[in-house]
Every structure is written in C-alpha cells, then in structure tokens.
Write a structure and sequence with these properties.
Elements lengths: L1 H33 L1 E2 L2 E2 H8 L1 E6 L6 E2 L5 E14 L17 H12 L3 H13 L4 E3 L9 H8 L6 E10 L7 H4 L2 E3 L4 E3 L2 H5 L1 H5 L3 E6 L13 E3 L6 E4 L3 H18 L3 E7 L6 E7 L16 H4 L9 H11 L7 E3 L2 E4 L2 E4 L8 E3 H6 L3 H12 L1 H10 L23 H6 L10 H12 L4 E2 L4 E5 L6 E4 L4 E3 L4 H16 L17 E8 L15 E9 L6 E8 L10 H18 L15 E2 L8 H10 L5 E3 L5 E4 L6 E2 L6 E4 L12 H11 L2 E5 L3 E5 L12 E7 L1 H23 L1
Parallel strand pairs: 4-12, 27-30, 31-33
Antiparallel strand pairs: 1-2, 3-10, 4-5, 5-6, 5-7, 8-9, 10-11, 12-20, 13-14, 13-25, 15-18, 16-17, 19-22, 20-21, 23-24, 24-25, 26-29, 28-30, 32-33
Length: 734
C-alpha cells in the first residue's frame, strides 16, 4: 500500500513539474518569438530605458528698431548642477561626482551668494536619496559667463553647467511698455505683454529634439542610433521705432522725472504722413531686465484714458473752420458761458473782457471753444466731427491692451465741455491719430508700431505694413488754416505757448493743455497748482509737418516761479528739435545757421587729430579711445547724419580703456562691439565700476565687467556713506 502511494505521488510530482517546465519553456519560447511581455515590446522597453531624449530649444526671434538695431534678443546664461552619484566616476584619479560636500559648498558659496550650509545640505540629501544629481535653486541659475569661469577655475569634481536662454533687452527701460515682457516655462520663452505677446507665435518658432542610446553611466554608446530633429528658429519683428529718437525721448523724460517727480508722464512721436510711431514712452515704466519694484505695468499711451483738457480745442477749431463758421476777427464776451443751470468759466475765471475768437484760441479760452461748438457748429454736428476724428473708437494700433476713451454727450453741459476736453476721456494715441489729419492735408492715418516681420534665417520679408488713410474729417485747406492759427499760439505774445514751445530752427503749430484731475475722494476736481495734467500737442514744421508729438505730465512738483509748461516744453523742444535735425528736415525759419546737423566726414587718410578737429569745428565732441594717431574704427559711417548730442567713438591703433563712469549701458555696448570686448554687467542704470582700469591697453577678446547703478541707488549709497562718516566722527568725539 505504501509503495503504491509513493509511486502515485512520484508520478504526480513528475507530471506537475513537467507541466511547469513546459509552461515556463513555452513562455520563454513565446517571448523569444514575439519579443513582447504583457503586450509591451521588450526591445522598445530596453531602448526607452537606455535612450536619452532632449529638447533642442528654438531660438526666439529678435525684435529690432527700424534701423535693425536689436531691442530684444536671446541671451545665453548658465545653470549649475552637481552630480552626486559615485558610480558615475569610473577612474578614482579623475572623479566625476562630488567627493567632498563641505569643501564644495564652502567654495561655491561666495560666488553663488548662497549659504554654504544650504549647499552642503542639498548635496548630502541627494547622496542619501540616491539621486544622480542635485540643483541649488534660483541662486545657481542665470549665471553669467564670469561666474561660470570663476567656478570652473575651482576644479570642483561633479560640478557642471547647462546653457539656458533668457530674454535680454540691451537698452533697459527703452520702450519697455511697447516691446513688452516674457516669462520662461519648461519648454520655451513666452511673451506676456507688448510686442513680445502680440507676436509670440511668430517669435517663438518650433523646438527640435535629439535622442541617443547610452549606458548606465549616461555615456553615449558606440552605435547610439542618434536621431536629431533640428529646431525651427523664431522669426524677427522690425518696429517703426527709431532708436535715436526713442533714446532722445527716454533721456528727456528721465531728466524731467528726476527734477519734477510727476506721478505720471506719457509721450508719443509719430510720422503724420505714414502713421509710424517713432517713439513712445511712459513714466513710471519698468526695466524688463530687472522687474523688482515695478510701479506701472501699463502702456499709458494706449491704455489709460483721461480728460485731455485744452488740446481738444484743436479739433473744435478745425470743425468750425470746416463748417465755415469761423471768423477770427469776430468778438465775443469771454469769462463765462451759461448752459442751462450750469456755468463754465475761462481758466483765469474772469476772462479778458471782449476779445476776438483768434485771441480766444491763443489764450485757450474755454468760452471760445464752447461758443464755437454749441452756438455756431451746433451740438449734433459737432458730435459728428468727434466721430469723424475717431474719438468714439479705439485707435486700433497694433499693440495689445488698448482701452479707448469715452465721449460723454448725453446732457447739455457734456455737449459743451467736450469742446474743451473736460468730462469726455481720450488716450494719447487717439489724440495723435486725430491730429494727423491736421498735419497731413486733412487725411487721418492709422498709427502702427510693427514695420515688418522677417524670416530670421534668410532675412526675407514675411509681411510689410503699408501706411493707411483711415478717414478725412477735414479738407486740406482747413488743415492748413488750422495749423496757421495754432502757430500763433506759439508766436503771439497772447498765446499760451509763447516763448515756451518755440524751436530754434523750425516753426511749430500746437496747443497747450491744462486738464483738471477728478478727485478720487470727493466730488469734483482736485485743487492746488500742481494737481493738473499739463500737456502739449504740437507738429513741425508748420507748412508741411514731418513729426507730431504729444506730451502729458501729471502732477509735477513745480517751483513757485515755474509754470506747468516747464517740464512739458523741455521734453518737446529737446526731442522735436533734435529729431528733425537727425531726420535731415530742412529748417524753415529765416536767418538760421546752415549747420545744425552734419554729414559725418570721411576719415580715410586722416589722422586722429585731424578728424577730432574737424568734428569740433561742427560742434561735435567725439570720444577717442586710445592715444594712437592712426584711426582703426569709427562708430558711424562716412556720410551718416549726426547731431551734437550724439556720442561718437573713434578707435585708435593704440586703444586704451576710458573712464566709463556714468555711461549708459547702450554706450558701453557700443564700445564693446567696436573693440569686440567680452562684456558682462550686473545691475541697472549707469556705470558705477569697471573691471579694466582707465588707461590700460585693451584688445579684442578682453574681459570687461561693469557694475551699473541707478541714480536712486547712488544717492542712497552716498547718504549711507555720509551717515557712517558722521557716526564715526561722533564715536571719536565720545
């Protein structure tokens, strides 16, 4: 019985193991034949595990000014990481991972400005968690070339870098609200405002990729089966902005900002023949390279409607002339005008007794504007003109974020106050667009800031913006007569712009504005001599205007003897005069010296001394780099139009480092490009320190590090130094 049971059990186990063997063998044969497990290809799984795949970022397109000077471009920085997996080291004498966490942390700390204990902690946590590599947060990202080189010179095992692109704006605050901002996500740089946002898809391009097979140490195999998909770089955008005119505007506004500390400023320069915006700026604005302490993200020129004040009288005057109801010699009683139960008054409250309508326009009489619009043109017909000048709609400029003003025209008083810019609101760009009709034979042009888009690889034009006439609210004859009357606002002793907005070489037609500011806390308007928006809308030369300019300065801190026009006229005169000269517009005033701007002379076969003397005769003071008497390079081409305030570089055959203290970054960049220096900088504003001392010989490839400092930072540093000195003196006395 026992033998029979044993025999049966033996047969059972033999059969059982035979079946198991057959199942396992069959499974192996099946896997070998199909190469799959649970529907997953083993070959694909293995390839995936030993294949590295990386994205190749497309280079974001460049934004240029009209003369193809870059105003936004891609810039390479570095990210630091540390390999902590000791298996990555194959030879002990040549370690590839971090061997000493404490030493590594101590050496990296002063360069990265990260606490050594924090660096050491991250390394040790990475080792404990069996990670391959670790990073160190924001302090180890966006490192400069200089920081990278300093760290590489430490020869720390396991410390490596990856390149990463950032968006760089070489001129800082230059037209920042137009150009806009970007932010970086995991895949690419994305535009979030301005042109960067409006043309984001065109600028971005399409990312590529690369994949290859590697071993467990991340080393590429001999046959890596590499696959590369090249990226398609983004295309370029060319703006209508002119870097020289924009720089004139930025510098002038910065000076006014520093001297008068207004709460808001806006300015626009436009070509009235084409609608091209040559310059546009706001204060406060921002530096897109440094977004700390940003006070204003908006482009006020297109997105902040306000009551414009007396600049609206330009269009009331033009409408009256067009309707045939204007008589400059007709008298009216100034001072006050009653509409229903409401009374409007002239800005001096009492008026000037009985004066002509011509004098009323010159003196910026509210009563004159009210009588023209309500009594002579009629409120319904005047409203038609406001619509014809497009004040009831956005300007449709090719920028995001436009918010148009609103015409208030429901009640009798609103139909009167609209004639002199109170109650209803507009934006600066709406005013400039409407004024183009006065400057351009009655034809109103469409304002725009993008001149063309270009293929970044071939340079071929993708799209080109042509000038567009979008209306003709007045005739050519009316436009000419309006300009001639507005010229007397500047030339007549009774004019509000007399001896304030006149230019040296060019005639000007324009209108001043002093707009009240609604009180945010109480009904009505704010009081006090500073609580106004002071503005000017002007064009020059009068007979055939080549430029229109609008400036508005809100709540400047004026001296008791200063008028509100002081900061506005400073910007207008500096920018308009120099811009017309730069554009080679023929002066139209009599007895004007023929030389205001000059064609840069040829420097071929001239010594340094000869060229400098020739330029000084024309009022140009060049910056000479070095002591050599032979000229190697000059920053402008022979025949190029230059103005007295323009910085000209002359590079001699023995270049030496100048003292660049106080220079703007754009001038440092120009010098660096001419000599081909390896330039790095930190901070914003103007040069405070330089790594190459003054007088040292320089050559192509030399490394130059500059520290920039804003005027506010310099003032704070000076104040702190004085306080420290005073404290030290007090301690000595004690």
């Amino acid at each position: 019985m026992k033998n029979k049971t044993t025999h049966r059990m033996s047969i059972f186990w033999i059969a059982f193991f035979s079946i198991v063997f057959l199942v396992i063998t069959g499974r192996f044969l099946y896997i070998q034949a199909t190469g799959e497990v649970a529907g997953i290809s083993l070959q694909s799984f293995a390839d995936e595990k030993r294949t590295n795949s990386y994205q190749i970022s497309a280079e974001r397109g460049t934004i240029f000014d009209r003369n193809l000077m870059p105003v936004a471009e891609e810039h390479v920085v570095y990210r630091l990481y540390a390999i902590v997996d000791e298996t990555f080291t194959t030879h002990e004498e040549n370690p590839k991972h971090v061997k000493n966490a404490q030493l590594t942390a101590e050496k990296l700390s002063p360069i990265l400005e990260i606490d050594a204990a924090e660096i050491q902690k991250r390394i040790e946590e990475g080792i404990r968690d069996e990670r391959f590599q670790v990073e160190f947060g924001a302090g180890a990202r966006e490192l400069t070339q200089k920081q990278k080189e300093e760290i590489e010179n430490l020869n720390l095992p396991g410390i490596n870098f990856t390149e990463e692109p950032i968006r760089f704006y070489p001129n800082g605050r230059f037209a920042s609200s137009i150009i806009g901002l970007t932010q970086k996500n995991e895949e690419k740089i994305e535009g979030i405002s301005g042109i960067e946002n409006q043309y984001n898809d065109l600028l971005n391009g399409v990312n590529g990729s690369i994949s290859y097979q590697r071993d467990k140490f991340n080393v590429k195999l001999l046959d890596p089966k590499e696959i590369i998909n090249e990226p398609e770089n983004g295309d370029d955008v060319v703006l209508t902005l002119d870097q020289k005119i924009q720089t004139l505007l930025e510098d002038s506004m910065s000076e006014v900002d520093e001297q008068y500390e207004p709460s808001r400023m806006t300015a626009i320069v436009m070509d009235p023949k084409t609608g091209e915006i040559l310059a546009m700026s706001n204060r406060p604005n921002f530096n897109p390279n440094d977004l700390s302490n940003v006070e204003n993200w908006y482009n006020d020129a297109i997105s902040t409607p306000f009551e414009p004040g007396s600049t609206m009288k330009i269009f009331t005057l033009a409408a009256a002339i067009e309707e045939g109801v204007w008589n400059e010699n007709e008298y009216y009683k100034s001072g006050s005008y009653k509409i229903g139960s409401n009374t409007i008054r002239d800005h001096n409250k009492r008026g000037w007794d009985s004066i002509t309508f011509m004098e009323g326009i010159q003196r910026s009489s509210n009563v004159a504007a009210a009588k023209l619009a309500y009594d002579k043109i009629g409120p319904d017909r005047f409203f038609d003109y406001l619509q014809d000048f497009n004040f009831d709609q956005p300007s449709n400029i090719d920028l995001p974020g436009e918010v148009p003003g609103t015409i208030l025209y429901d009640y009798g008083i609103e139909k009167v106050t609209a004639s002199f810019g109170q109650g209803s609101t507009v934006t600066p760009i709406q005013l400039v667009k409407a004024a183009s009709a006065v400057a351009n034979h009655g034809q109103m042009v469409q304002p725009f800031v993008v001149k063309e888009t270009k293929d970044s690889s071939t340079g071929e034009t993708i799209s080109l913006q042509a000038p567009e006439i979008v209306g003709q609210p007045i005739s050519d004859k009316t436009a000419e007569e309006t300009r001639n009357i507005l010229e007397t606002v500047i030339t007549s002793k009774k004019g509000t712009g007399y001896n304030i907005y006149n230019l040296q070489d060019y005639t000007v037609a324009g209108k001043t504005g002093t707009a009240e500011i609604p009180d945010p806390e109480n009904p009505g308007y704010m009081t006090g001599r500073n609580n106004y928006v002071f503005s000017f809308l002007g064009m020059a030369p009068v007979d055939d205007p080549q430029l229109i300019m609008y400036i508005a300065v809100k709540q400047p801190k004026l001296e008791p003897t200063e008028s509100g026009s002081a900061p506005v006229s400073y910007i207008f005169k500096n920018v308009m005069e120099n811009s017309l000269r730069y554009l080679n517009i023929e002066p139209d005033k009599e007895d004007i010296p023929s030389v205001s701007a000059i064609d840069f002379p040829s420097w071929s076969n001239k010594s340094t001394t000869q060229l400098v003397e020739r330029l000084k005769e024309s009022g140009i003071s060049p910056t000479v780099i070095g002591n050599g008497d032979k000229i190697e390079k000059v920053s402008v081409e022979a025949g190029e139009e230059i103005t007295p305030n323009q910085r000209i570089f002359i590079i001699t055959n023995e270049p030496t480092m100048p003292d660049i203290s106080g220079w703007a970054l754009r001038d440092v960049l120009a010098l660096s490009e001419l000599i081909d220096l390896d330039l790095e900088w930190i901070g914003n504003g103007f040069v405070d320190a330089q790594s190459i001392e003054k007088g040292r010989a320089i050559k192509a490839g030399d490394y130059l590090m500059v520290e920039l400092q804003t005027k506010e930072e310099a003032l704070l540093e000076e104040t702190e130094a004085e306080e420290e000195k005073e404290n030290a003196e007090e301690q000595v006395e004690d």
